[in-house]
Specification:
alpha/beta; 7-stranded mixed sheet; 7-stranded parallel sheet; about 20% strand; ATP-dependent DNA helicase RecG; DNA damage; helicase
């Protein structure tokens, strides 16, 4: 049966080479298997037949039985339209076609019973239906069809070339006739009975030709579960394979560095979330597998302390550690922060970035190779071939989505056995997406803020309130605070009428004149040295206002900055707004985030702004963002290839996703190599869909 599904689509009766070519190009359908997985995106209820006298002015799709009593061609613009009189025993209406008149005129039979289907448009008291679907009543009654009519995904090109929904439906019917509607089962008998799932054959038949709403719902559930189950199986197995195949250094000591820091120099009590995460990391480092862990935590949740304590475990076991950040500003900040924390410990830390002097580089390279240097912090400069460690045991990557896979793998090669990897991000990844995209990484989440951090007050203000906002900024500066003002663009764009940075800078300079006020400006087109100079002025408190584009999004830490103004906030995505808000609220003072917009807002913009005002929970914000933007835009997941879903939707089918992950884990716990008889269909299907064919080579 399975081999039949690999038949090229050209060989299906009713397709032929031309249609096959279009189906390949437009819908990616190459084989019978691809066609069976072209699932309808909605259904029309065809159980009801209307009389012409019953038609309402509601623009709904209706189905009518009647006869064509006359045809005429009417001249229009460049061609002719065909108009038919259509009657039943209660009244008459018109059917209209704007193309294909010649062919239709020859093929329509007069005074013969037809079933027509389409949208009925009202003109005065009369109704007309443009481009109706038409079928002889005799054929209609014979056809393999269901009361619920499936509507398949399509493209303009397919419609123009005559591959309508009706044609797709006919092709699908032919496929079921040729395969006798029998498809191999892909799930185990246990799963089917535990979850009361319909069989594969029944599910496929009822998704394409549903008899009723209930069977359709059960069939969709079955197919969605199956799709998500195999994705989870791949991710969990990838993780198991990784752990059994890639051995890591075993850090079995928690020694002097860690304990001294913990007992005497920890600047504040750890939150329960931080304690939990450190425990998870310690367990990884103590096993003999390489750690591959993603650490998520909102801005200010205390990831840096966790990173440092993980590095101290590496040092206690005689290894070196490194921390790589995406920008020079951020790596300098990490270096300053960690140097301060390690002040009283006998630890050597150095910073390596693009602007490190050649003479300093030489000293760093040498100290790194002979083991005098314990911790190296830096940017991409860490990846250079010249940078050789004596014994790198732990590599930490901050804001990992800014680094490519190739860059990460370079870090792996910095030791004979790959170092343990801890990836950190302040961009909250919705749990749904994390389960699907990062399911092969172990995930730790810091989901509480350190005590004493006051929540940031967020408000939305329209441009008409600008004077009040300016007065508020003056009051905050008078209290000795500093302010960020962020713009979306650098230069005026012809088709976008929102404020650009230079305009903004000029008007801010007028409202806050020197010498009383000093203003910094930072944007992406500045030279790194100029940018750094302006940043430093603001960090030192020499300027009270920082006018910037989103270059300040990641990691700048100025505890005295307590106000974030975001201009044209409707132009930013939710995760960006959340990141920008995280730049304030780093000191003990109450901080504020003001979202400025025009009055013209789309419904998505309103949702984003309302979400920002309502909550500061990064995960809740990420879930809303995922609902608004879909998984493809967030974290570039489309490149992962794993989310090329046919029927499931990881947002709407979140519950099914969790269920699928749970069952995939249970089955692998019981039978990691899937060799039990009952798991045969699962193993067979897994080998069809997975990248890792021979599981047993890896899993003992």
């Amino acid at each position: 049966m399975n081999s039949k599904l690999q038949t090229p689509i050209d060989y299906l009766k009713g397709v032929g080479p031309n249609r096959a070519d279009l189906l390949r190009k437009e819908l990616g359908i190459h084989t019978y298997q691809d066609l069976i997985n072209l699932f309808p995106n909605r259904y029309l209820d065809r159980t009801q037949y209307y009389k012409i006298a019953q038609l309402q002015r509601n623009n709904a799709d209706v189905q009518i039985v009647g006869r064509v009593t006359g045809l005429k061609e009417v001249s229009q613009g460049k061609g002719k339209r065909l108009v038919a009189s259509f009657k039943d025993d209660t009244g008459a209406m018109e059917l209209v076609w704007f193309r294909g008149a010649k062919w239709l005129k020859e093929s329509i039979k007069l005074n013969t019973d037809y079933v027509i289907f389409g949208k009925a448009n009202a003109f005065g008291t009369n109704f007309s239906m443009p481009h109706p679907e038409m079928e002889l009543l005799e054929e209609h009654e014979k056809n393999l069809r269901s009361a619920m009519q499936p509507i398949y995904p399509s493209t303009e090109k397919l419609s123009n070339k005559g591959i309508t929904n009706r044609v797709l439906n006919k092709i699908m019917q032919q496929l079921f006739l040729e395969t006798h509607g029998k498809f191999e089962e892909t799930l185990s008998q246990n799963l089917l009975s535990d979850l009361k799932l319909v069989s594969k054959s029944e599910a496929l038949f009822n998704v394409h030709f549903p008899k009723n709403q209930e069977l359709l719902a059960r069939s969709q559930f079955r197919l969605k579960f199956e799709e998500l189950f195999y994705i989870q199986l791949q991710l969990i197995l990838k993780n198991l394979i990784h752990k059994s195949k890639i051995k890591g250094f075993t850090f079995d000591q928690v020694g002097e560095h860690f304990n001294t820091f913990f007992k005497h120099y920890l600047p504040f009590d750890l939150t329960n979330a931080q304690k939990r995460v450190i425990k998870e990391i310690r367990a990884d480092l103590g096993s003999n597998a390489q750690m591959n862990r993603l650490l998520q935590g909102d801005v200010g949740s205390g990831k840096t302390i966790v990173a440092l304590m993980s590095m101290l475990i590496a040092l206690d076991n005689g290894f070196q550690a490194c921390l790589m950040a995406p920008t020079e500003i951020l790596s300098v900040q990490h270096f300053n922060g960690l140097s301060e924390l390690c002040n009283n410990l006998n630890i050597r830390i150095k910073l390596l970035t693009g602007s490190t002097k050649t003479s300093d580089r030489r000293i760093i390279h040498e100290a790194l190779e002979n083991g005098e240097l314990d911790i190296l912090i830096g940017t991409h400069a860490l990846l250079e071939d010249k940078v050789k460690f004596k014994n790198l045991g732990l590599a930490i990557i901050d804001e990992q989505h800014r680094f490519g896979v190739a860059q990460r793998s370079k870090l792996w090669k910095k030791n004979t056995i790959p170092p343990h990897i801890l990836v950190m991000t302040a961009t909250p990844i919705p749990r749904t997406l994390a389960m699907s995209v990062y399911g092969d990484l172990d995930i730790s989440i810091i989901d509480e803020l350190p005590p004493g951090r006051r929540p940031i007050k967020t408000v939305h203000r329209f441009d008409s309130n600008r004077l009040k906002v300016l007065r508020f900024i003056r009051d905050e500066i008078d209290k000795g605070r500093q302010v960020y003002i962020v713009y979306p663009l650098i230069q005026e764009s012809e088709n976008m009428d929102y404020k650009d940075l230079m305009d903004g800078y000029e008007s801010i300079s007028r409202d806050f004149p020197s010498p009383k006020y000093q203003i910094s400006i930072v944007h992406g087109k500045m030279k790194p040295a100029d940018k750094e100079f302006e940043m430093q002025r603001f960090i030192k408190g020499e300027t009270q206002i920082m006018v910037a584009t989103t270059v300040i999004e990641v990691g700048v830490n100025v505890p005295n900055a307590s106000v974030m103004i975001i201009e044209s906030a409707e132009r930013f995505g939710l995760s960006q707004l959340h990141q920008l808000r995280g730049r304030v609220g780093r000191g003990a003072e109450q901080s504020f985030c003001i979202l400025m917009t025009s009055h013209k807002l789309s419904s998505d913009s309103k949702t984003r702004l309302e979400t920002m005002v309502r909550t500061s929970d990064g995960f809740e914000i990420a879930e809303v963002d995922l609902r608004l933007r879909g998984p493809g835009d967030i974290m570039g997941t489309q490149q992962s290839g794993i989310l090329n879903l046919k029927i499931a939707d990881i947002i709407k089918d979140n519950d099914i996703l969790k269920l699928a992950r749970f069952h995939a884990k249970e089955i692998l716990k019981d039978d990691p190599r899937l060799i039990k008889d009952q798991h045969r269909p699962i193993l067979f299907t897994y080998q069809q869909v997975a990248k890792y064919k021979n599981i047993w080579n890896y899993i003992s």
